Amino acid sequence: MIKHITQDDIKAMEQRERARLINSLSGFKSANLIGTQNASGITNLAIVSSVFHLGADPALIGMIIRPDTVPRDTLSNIKATGVYTINHVNSLIWQQAHQTSARYDESESEFEKVALTEQFEKGIDAPFVGESQAKFALELREIKPLEINGTVLVIGEITHIIVPDIALCKDGYIDIEALDTVAISGLDSYHTTERLGRLSYAKPNTKPQLLNIEGDVC
Amino acid sequence: MIKHITQDDIKAMEQRERARLINSLSGFKSANLIGTQNASGITNLAIVSSVFHLGADPALIGMIIRPDTVPRDTLSNIKATGVYTINHVNSLIWQQAHQTSARYDESESEFEKVALTEQFEKGIDAPFVGESQAKFALELREIKPLEINGTVLVIGEITHIIVPDIALCKDGYIDIEALDTVAISGLDSYHTTERLGRLSYAKPNTKPQLLNIEGDVC
């Protein structure tokens, strides 16, 4: 049976039920840990499912933060230092990653609380996650308030990428599935992936071809 | 071996290689088809990997569109009609979905070109994809230019949701994995998923519990 849910139905729903429903609709989401520190050097780690690609040249990443929920320390740290890291969540650390969303006091570091390893790199004033396989650092470019619902769009430029060379394909693609990166659906569901295939650039009068992920390309 | 890629390396890369690399970094992305029509009723369908959750109350979805690439008809249609649909790509239609990114003439409908079925619902002036299992209609709320790289953020409010009741869990979560919704990595890689688990709401002094996805919840 196909269910039709109207705008009135959505408005009438209990708040948590509506949050679970609407959060399921956008499709699979990225699972990333945002690493920051405040001016006193207290580190912070927060799982965020709203990281998205914004552009490759310059290399820009966007994320949505709701100032009144847990990543609030993340936002104030980014404002204070202008620097943050984004670390892929993988299938070995997904439960610890989820636990960073608990409301720890700002004097406590989530790294310690959930037992993940701080990794510092020279010249970057924000901690990476040692257990994460694909990670990168960013400099803050812009904080754009979205008046429509009180969230903010944080835009950063990528300054440093750390990735195992085995997953870096010759054509630039990173095989994030081989690195065990997970995806999120809804508010709380975590998923590993299985590749259907890579497809060639689409042109009007030809069918897309499957790219060979091994050998030639990777 | 761990590879470090610096900002200078990124800037020096060949354009398509950089696009593949940077597009891989945000993690898994949603795979959605945007259904629109112009004022003359010519329909359009475009795959977009930049759809993201913006808020549940009001129910808002964001997506990034680069006006100079293929979804340009999508943007002008949304501006003209104020209405669009978002349709999950699943493992039966992923190759057809990818093919919508070819540069078809604006007088041609991608529905016909890639052999997907237009589905119209009363009162909604945009086509759904018949073959998509989870889909919803939106009214345009805001088009926000992002000056930093010339992209635009399109914000819509969800007005109508169509989903099989078998995938709609009691607590509001939609089991999009059961609907075969796929994820994208990079520019051109498509993935099915396998659930690791759902986790309970995180609290500071307890470990998150695995939620039972069948029976009680679903």
Automatic annotation (TrEMBL), chains A, B:
Organism: Pseudoalteromonas spongiae
InterPro entries: Flavin_Rdtase-like_dom (IPR002563), Split_barrel_FMN-bd (IPR012349)
Family in the record: Belongs to the flavoredoxin family.
UniProt keyword annotations, A-Z: Flavoprotein, FMN
Any matching Pfam family: Flavin_Reduct
Swiss-Prot/TrEMBL cofactor(s): FMN
Gene3D superfamilies xref list: Electron Transport, Fmn-binding Protein, Chain A (2.30.110.10)
Residue stretches making up the Flavin reductase like domain: 33-165
Protein name in UniProt: Flavin reductase
Keyword check for Flavoprotein: yes
